[in-house]
C-alpha cells in the first residue's frame, strides 16, 4: 500500500503512527520545542504503508491559505521490486562462500566501497572551517555527513542529469584510486577473514529476504527455511535416500552365461580403447611407460590399431574354453 500526498504547499509536516494519540503527541512535541531533525520525513509526498498493521497518518500545513491537499492510495498486488530484492538476498546467501573467495568480487566491492566512502574526504575538508575541538568536530562531522547523504539521495537523479560529466569523472577517478589500493594489498588470503566475509554476506542476504515483505511472519519463515536448506541439505538427502532404499529395495536381475560373455567383451573393448586414449594423451609419460614394458614393439603395434593378442594366443584361449565347456558337460551328466 502506497499513500500519495498532493499539495502545493512547501511548509507541511507529515506524521505517521499507529493511533491518533501518537500523531497528536508528535505534533505537540514538535510545536513546543525547536529541533533540527535531519531524519525528518516531512517533505516526502510518497509513503509506504504496512497493510498488516494499523496505520494513522497526520498532515499539518502551517499556512492557513494553502491548506488544501489530496491524499490517494495505491494498492500493489505483486511488487516486482520486492520480489527482486528477495531473489537477490537468496542468491547472496547461497553464493556467499563462492563470493568470499572470488577475486573479481573483492575488487568490485573495493571499488564500490571507495566510491561511496569518498564523501568522507569532503567532510574532512569541511571540518577545517569549524573551530578546533574534538566535541565540536564530532558534532559537525555527524550532522554534516547525515545532511550530505540525505541531500545526495534526494537529488541524485537531478545531479546525475545536470552534472553528468562531473559525476562520470568523479566515479572514474575514485574507482581508479580504489582499484589501485585493492591491487596493492591484493585479495584476501586468510581463511578466517574469508569466513567472516561469508558470514557478513549471509547476514546481508537474510536481511534482504526479511525486509522484502511486510508480512514478517512469512519472510522470517523464508529465512529459517533458507538456513535449514543451506546447512542440512546433504544429511537430509542421504537419510531420505537410505530410507527409500530400505523401504523399496531394488530388485536385482541375474544374467545368463551368454550375457556374461557379451558383457566381458564389451568391457574389454572399452578398457582397451581407454588405454589407447590415455597413452596418446599428454598426461602419459611415453618413455617411462616403454621402460616398464616387456615387449615395446608389440605395444606399439597395438597403439597403431593391431590386435592386442596374437593368433596362437587366440587359438590357445579357444582350446582352454573348449576344455572347460567339456568338463562342465561331463560334470552335469554325472550329476
Describe the structure.
The protein has 335 residues and is mainly α. Helix content is 66%, strand content 7%. The protein has 15 helices and five strands. The strands form two sheets. It has a three-stranded antiparallel beta sheet, with no helix packed on it. Helix 2 runs antiparallel to helix 9 and helix 5 crosses helix 6. The longest helix is centred in the last third of the chain and has 24 residues. The protein is elongated. It starts with a strand and ends with a helix.
Walk me through the topology.
Elements: E1 2-6, E2 12-17, H1 20-32, E3 46-48, E4 56-61, E5 70-74, H2 80-94, H3 96-100, H4 103-117, H5 119-127, H6 134-154, H7 156-162, H8 164-185, H9 191-210, H10 216-231, H11 233-247, H12 257-280, H13 286-291, H14 296-303, H15 311-334
Antiparallel strand pairs: 1-3, 1-5, 2-4
List keywords for this structure.
two-stranded antiparallel sheet; elongated; 15 helices; 335 residues; three-stranded antiparallel sheet
Q: What's the quick description here?
A:
This protein has 15 helices and 5 strands. The chain has helices spanning 20-32, 80-94, 96-100, 103-117, 119-127, 134-154, 156-162, 164-185, 191-210, 216-231, 233-247, 257-280, 286-291, 296-303, 311-334, and strands at 2-6, 12-17, 46-48, 56-61, 70-74.
Amino acid at each position: 500500500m502506497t499513500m500519495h500526498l498532493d499539495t502545493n504547499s512547501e511548509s507541511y509536516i507529515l506524521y505517521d503512527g499507529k493511533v491518533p494519540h501518537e500523531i497528536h503527541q508528535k505534533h505537540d512535541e514538535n510545536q513546543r520545542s525547536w529541533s533540527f531533525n535531519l531524519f525528518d520525513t516531512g517533505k516526502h509526498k510518497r509513503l509506504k504503508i504496512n497493510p498488516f498493521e494499523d496505520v494513522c497518518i497526520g498532515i499539518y500545513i502551517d499556512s492557513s491559505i494553502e491548506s488544501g491537499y489530496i491524499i490517494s492510495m495505491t494498492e500493489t498486488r505483486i511488487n516486482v521490486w520486492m520480489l527482486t530484492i528477495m531473489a537477490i538476498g537468496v542468491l547472496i546467501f547461497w553464493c556467499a562462500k563462492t563470493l568470499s573467495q572470488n577475486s573479481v568480487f573483492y575488487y568490485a566491492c573495493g571499488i564500490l566501497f571507495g566510491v561511496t566512502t569518498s564523501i568522507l574526504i569532503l567532510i574532512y575538508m569541511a571540518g577545517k572551517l569549524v573551530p578546533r575541538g574534538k566535541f565540536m568536530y564530532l558534532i559537525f562531522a555527524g550532522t554534516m555527513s547525515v545532511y550530505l547523504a540525505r541531500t545526495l539521495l534526494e537529488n541524485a537523479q537531478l545531479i546525475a542529469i545536470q552534472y553528468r560529466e562531473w559525476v562520470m569523472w568523479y566515479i572514474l577517478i575514485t574507482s581508479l584510486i580504489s582499484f589501485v589500493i585493492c591491487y596493492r594489498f591484493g585479495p584476501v588470503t586468510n581463511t578466517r577473514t574469508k569466513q567472516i566475509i561469508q558470514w557478513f554476506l549471509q547476514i546481508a542476504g537474510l536481511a534482504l529476504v526479511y525486509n522484502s515483505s511486510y508480512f514478517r511472519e512469512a519472510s522470517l519463515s523464508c529465512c529459517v527455511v533458507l538456513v535449514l536448506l543451506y546447512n542440512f541439505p546433504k544429511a537430509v538427502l542421504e537419510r531420505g535416500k537410505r530410507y527409500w532404499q530400505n523401504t523399496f529395495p531394488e530388485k536385482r536381475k541375474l544374467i545368463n552365461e551368454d550375457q556374461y560373455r557379451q558383457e566381458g567383451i564389451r568391457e574389454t573393448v572399452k578398457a582397451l580403447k581407454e588405454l589407447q586414449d590415455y597413452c596418446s594423451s599428454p598426461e602419459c609419460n611415453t618413455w617411462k611407460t616403454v621402460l616398464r614394458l616387456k615387449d615395446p614393439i608389440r605395444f606399439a603395434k597395438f597403439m597403431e590399431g593391431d590386435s592386442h593378442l596374437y593368433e596362437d594366443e587366440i587359438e590357445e584361449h579357444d582350446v582352454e574354453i573348449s576344455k572347460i565347456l567339456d568338463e562342465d558337460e561331463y560334470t552335469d551328466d554325472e550329476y
